[in-house]
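Friendly challenge for the regulars: who can give me the structure tokens for this chain first? No prize, just bragging rights.
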Amino acid sequence: LRLVAVLKAILEAEKAAVLKRDRHLPLSFHRRQEELKFSLGLQRLQHRVREIQVLLDGPAGEGPGQDGAVDPCWWDSAMQSPVAGAAPQELPTLILEAVKELEVAKQQVLKRIKIWKRQQQLAGNGAVFEENLAPLQKRCESLVEVYFQLHQQVMAASAELGAELLPRLLERFHEVLSSLVKR
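First reply, four minutes later:
Bragging rights claimed.
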């Protein structure tokens, strides 16, 4: 992690030097950087969704064996509850982080839609306009796919989330989907 931090600092310093020298980078660089940020955020979100799914499903082979024997590492020291019983406390935190990342990804998509709309307006005045909607459509489809997976997992974990947290999460989900559809 330290190596990554050092490399990141070096690359940011080089970027600052290039920006200082050229005063701006080409538009294609900014688009590529934005695409990479979105892809990374979406991958992080998909990873969170998989983590939540693992917590909901539990590890393979969890619980008593077929012969009725109890796996000693599955139970805590008091033999009162499974270690996976810690998962309900961790599950709400993971879900909240995932919803936050979903909202960040939604903002990135909405920002890109706003840019596309502005470029379309400028095209009416003769500016060059990239009419290809495929990248924007792919972003929206990827985000909605993750949205539905996460929503399904929240509904599956509704008992662990409690009566207070579940309505707030569902409201946040509704806001994400409605803002994507409206724009």
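The mean pLDDT is 78. Residues 27-57+88-182 form a domain with the Glutathione S-transferase Yfyf (Class Pi); Chain A, domain 2 fold (CATH 1.20.1050.20). Your move, everyone else.
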